[in-house]
Amino acid sequence: MSENSNIQKQTKKLFAKLAKIVAPPPELSVSEWADLYRKLSSEASAEPGQWRTERAPYQKEIMDAINDPKTEEIVVMSSAQVGKTEIILNTVAYHVDYDPAPIMIIQPTVDLANTFSKTRLAPMLRDTPALKNKVADAKSRDSSNTIREKAFPGGVIMMVGANSPTGLSSRPVRILLADEVDRFPVSAGTEGDPLSLAVKRTNTFANRKKIFVSTPTIKGASRIEKAYEESTQEKWNLPCPSCDELQPLSWDQISFESVAMACKSCGSVHKEYEWKRGKGKWVANNPSSKIRGFHLNEMASPWKKWEEIITDFKRANKEGTESLKVWVNTSMGETWEERGESINSDALLEKTEDYSSEVPQSVGVLTCGVDVQDNRLEYEIVGWGLNRESWGIKYGIIMGDPGHEHVWEELDGVLNASYDREDGEKLQIMSTCIDSGGHHTKTVYDYCKKREINRVWAIKGQGGTGISFIKRPTRRQDSGVWLFTIGVDVGKDQVLSRLRATTEQHGYCHFPNDPTKGYDQDYFKGITSEHKVIRSKGGQTKHVWEKKRGHARNEPFDIRNYATAALEILNPDIDKIIESEGVVKPMVRKKKRKRARRT
């Protein structure tokens, strides 16, 4: 071989090496990038190590829709346990490393944004080598990296709360990731719909992407359901192992006994592993939409077995409506449709029963709720047993101006009295909540302050969604009293759920067939005086509690809510109390005979 030819050969090899060095990286989709570079952290994943999209193959199409130049908006309405947070994280990681852009992640609250940053984003940035040196250490003096804002070459990650108008009105963003949108408030302060505020941040980018993710809530008031209905409405389908008919995994086709699903076409019944080894496909119900929409339930998840889902359903069904609602939202990824607006007062009246003593044998704890009106106090004493089963003990009215001391002295007589149980045990009220709203706030504070040692608490109701039933108390500077804020809407949901419960479900409500104890027609009309209705505000629909037409008094409903709050504040171990007192709950109740309606 000539020297010239040798030089040419070496030159070709050199240019080939140079071409590899200077060549642009291969075009990668989000799922391809994740399969190559994403590492799962041990504190954030049950399966730490290299990410594998094939572990949950339904995730691939969702992630890769982000790379489709024709797709601007992506909607994911899903259950829990399907990896939707990892989809958000993979999207962030892809744009930090491969396609830099300003990114905004919205959580329902600022606190949740902080938690997401610390527990999900930070471990990913630390443990994924491709990202490790892209974002400065939060502990360094680099001001470009804080808990909720992290700069990287070519972009920035901003984490904001939907309750913060300041965060939502910050810099323009190209990638918008909104997590748990059904938990967003109706308005960010006084600025209006938080999702609309955030979407405006993307307007300056022609290649913008908007990804909305959530488990749904109530039908007619769910943001994610509304967005999904305007989308392609895609469902994850698997082929029948017998006839190859593609179909979604459907709860209606599940057999509890065999823990298997029947094919909707041929009727063949197959186990979970048989269905899941088939090659799945997303099937659109509305393919003409420009919005990609995906729906998933927990049955598709590799991390939740069907047997567990069946167990969860049985438990939720036994615990009552509120638990079943949560199961439908978080396991099926579906909205909950309210069955009727409220319960009928006559139906409760028909359920009244004869007590064999002032306090039935299965009661372990007594609580009290008190409402303050301008000319009276109204109260209810409620007995509680296992699984939040309740017994109405007494509903009373103390007439008189609450500004006069004798009215409160009479309430002292109620709260300090003993109440006889069937076994001869004398029970006392262990916790009381008194509403401090209205025109007698200072009087209530003064009364409760002196009796906090006896667990007599001042409370203040707060309406609206997303407000927990019991908030941590705050000490009032003006009076020194501890004040509990009560999420009254959550409490009313719970009361209504228990009023509807059957004898086989947790939380069943008993009432005495004794009008002299205060349980007359007026009481039952009062406890059923409100219903949930849909109202629209700022373009968003929501469910609110309102009085029914023709129902003037709703004090019994409010007061049962307060007595329930008193139990939750006390948080007693009723099982241990009942066991120590030798009280045995009957396993089977005799069917109550219907009694004539009282007048």
UniProtKB/TrEMBL annotation:
Residues 45-282 form the Phage terminase large subunit GpA ATPase domain. InterPro entries: GpA_ATPase (IPR046453), GpA_endonuclease (IPR046454), P-loop_NTPase (IPR027417), Phage_lambda_GpA-like (IPR008866), TFA_Chaperone (IPR051220). Residues 291-573 form the Terminase large subunit GpA endonuclease domain. Pfam families: GpA_ATPase, GpA_nuclease. GO terms for molecular function: ATP binding; ATP hydrolysis activity; endonuclease activity. PANTHER family: PROPHAGE TAIL FIBER ASSEMBLY PROTEIN HOMOLOG TFAE-RELATED, PROPHAGE TAIL FIBER ASSEMBLY PROTEIN HOMOLOG TFAE-RELATED-RELATED. HAMAP family: TERL_LAMBDA. This is Phage terminase large subunit family protein. It comes from Paenalkalicoccus suaedae. The lineage of its organism: Bacteria, Bacillati, Bacillota, Bacilli, Bacillales.
